[in-house]
Amino acid sequence: MKRITRVFHNWSVTSKFVGIFVLILTVSSIITGVIIYVQAYNSAISQARSVMEQNLLQTKTTIDEKVDMIENISEIIAFDSRIQTLLDSAFINESFQLQDYRYNVAPIVDNIMRQNTYIHSIHVYMNNPTIPEIFELYDGFYSMDRIRGDGEYVRFMKDVQNSTDWRGLHLENLLTTRPDVKAKADVFSYNRKILSGRNNEVNGLVEIEVTQSVLFQPLEDANTEVGSVLVLDNNHKVASNNNTPLSDAMINELTGVMPGDNSRLNMLATVGGVRSIVISVPLTGPDLRLVGVFPVSNFVDKVNQSIRTSFMVLIAALIILSLLVYYLTVKLLSRMKVLLKAMKQVREGSIDVSVPVVWNDEFTQMALSFNHMTTRIHDLVETVYKSELLEKDAELKALESQINPHFLYNTLATISWVARKAKAPDIVKLSDSMAKFYRLVLNKGNSETLVANELDMVGAYLAIQKFRFEDRFDAVFEVEERVRNCYTLKNILQPLVENALIHGIEPKRSHGTIIIKAALEDDQVVIRIIDDGVGMPRDMIEDVIAGKVLNTRGSGFAIANITKRLQAFYGESQHIELYSRQGIGTVITLSFAARGMNNV
């Protein structure tokens, strides 16, 4: 199983789609086909059993009609008053008796024979010994002495309970005296006792014989193409068949399933190693049973043929659908391959990649997402790149003309030493502030610094500017102690303080104040630079916010420059607000995510 799973995992996506589709369709088709075949098979067998039973019942009805006719004819003869009178009267060989016999009694049997041609013979046995033998030879009337030695007749005559009796298959009774004539025909005979009209004693016996072939003529009309139809007697011997004889072994198998009573039978059984429909119905009159044996294959061949045809159609449909699934899968995966190729290009470093967008399906959504992702990556990379350029530019501007920081520090230290020697404290203070400012600006090449260092750098810068502005402004710091250990980008406050000084305080022409506030508010570092300078008109505020003002005179950086640096480093967690009113002053507020030394 693991090997099969491993092989399946190594298949291509197209092979997996087509394979799974073929498997599902094949399994479902097989299950459906089996169910349909079983239902069709059972339906065909059930219908065949019903139709074949109806055919046998029709054959039985035709045979029963002949049996009933024979029984009715025997009743007509036995209860004919002329025959009863003849058998009851003593025959004294008078001429009137001879004429009455020849013209009134003898034609009775002759007329019946003429009207019912299927009757083989009619025998009237007389128990009256006075009737001469001569009549027996010509007219069908015979002496009872002819049958007294036959056990079948003796048994029937002694049975006082029955007045009629069907005799099984036997050779015909030839009552002629010619030696060249022998009994040849196989007949069934119906016997009826003739009772005396005076005392109800048995005066005679009427026997009607019908040949086997005539009685079972309807079997010749039975459908022999689908099976065998035969007649079995009470000893399970074949009394007749429709020229499709069964072997003795098959007859023995049939006798094993025959009911012991006169009930009908309709069942499936194996006869001669062949699954067959066995139907049995009892016949009226003779103790016989009409049996039909119909192989099941004769009825399900069309079902099998239909199943084979359906199977071929299913195979053709499966091939066509598999090709269609293969085509659709290839077309869909071709779009996926375009996306995979683009992903490979991105992986190799080419981020300026996009895939064509067609239609409006899931693959289109993937293409749109990929294009959006590459565009976003491109923008982020470009933003970071620009941020790095801005950072380098800020450092270069801060270090303009300062090739060797150690040389700068040494020079400023020398100036401070000379100023002390010359007893010039202002120069000492100025040189010390400048040395501190540049040391903090350089920050050992790091892009981040503590808020405390950034504030110290602003303090050194303002100390230097006080010499320039001759103490025309005051600098006030309102800083929470806990914010000092938070990290910030370096060189973001000094440009803003420089803008406040140059654009706010200097044009005022009077004493001013710059306030730097720093605090923690809701996990955000919030720094405000407030001045009471000349302020800015509304249109200038909008230009600054829109980034149109990119440079300022002096050594400060533009607000737009600082905004881009904060966006590149902090993303959406940073925010800059600018509020100003002419004649009142300006407030610049910076806020970004707090990140202290304990969670660096």
Automatic annotation (TrEMBL):
<dbReference type="Pfam" id="PF02518">
    <property type="entry name" value="HATPase_c"/>
</dbReference>
<keyword id="KW-0067">ATP-binding</keyword>
<dbReference type="InterPro" id="IPR050640">
    <property type="entry name" value="Bact_2-comp_sensor_kinase"/>
</dbReference>
<keyword id="KW-0547">Nucleotide-binding</keyword>
<keyword id="KW-1133">Transmembrane helix</keyword>
<feature type="domain" description="HAMP">
    <location>
        <begin position="330"/>
        <end position="382"/>
    </location>
</feature>
<dbReference type="InterPro" id="IPR003594">
    <property type="entry name" value="HATPase_dom"/>
</dbReference>
<keyword id="KW-0812">Transmembrane</keyword>
<keyword id="KW-0902">Two-component regulatory system</keyword>
<dbReference type="InterPro" id="IPR003660">
    <property type="entry name" value="HAMP_dom"/>
</dbReference>
<keyword id="KW-0808">Transferase</keyword>
<feature type="transmembrane region" description="Helical">
    <location>
        <begin position="311"/>
        <end position="334"/>
    </location>
</feature>
<keyword id="KW-0418">Kinase</keyword>
<dbReference type="InterPro" id="IPR036890">
    <property type="entry name" value="HATPase_C_sf"/>
</dbReference>
<dbReference type="InterPro" id="IPR005467">
    <property type="entry name" value="His_kinase_dom"/>
</dbReference>
<keyword id="KW-0597">Phosphoprotein</keyword>
<dbReference type="Pfam" id="PF00672">
    <property type="entry name" value="HAMP"/>
</dbReference>
<dbReference type="Pfam" id="PF06580">
    <property type="entry name" value="His_kinase"/>
</dbReference>
<keyword id="KW-0472">Membrane</keyword>
<dbReference type="InterPro" id="IPR010559">
    <property type="entry name" value="Sig_transdc_His_kin_internal"/>
</dbReference>
<keyword id="KW-1003">Cell membrane</keyword>
<feature type="transmembrane region" description="Helical">
    <location>
        <begin position="20"/>
        <end position="40"/>
    </location>
</feature>
<feature type="domain" description="Histidine kinase">
    <location>
        <begin position="489"/>
        <end position="596"/>
    </location>
</feature>
<protein>
    <recommendedName>
        <fullName>histidine kinase</fullName>
        <ecNumber>2.7.13.3</ecNumber>
    </recommendedName>
</protein>
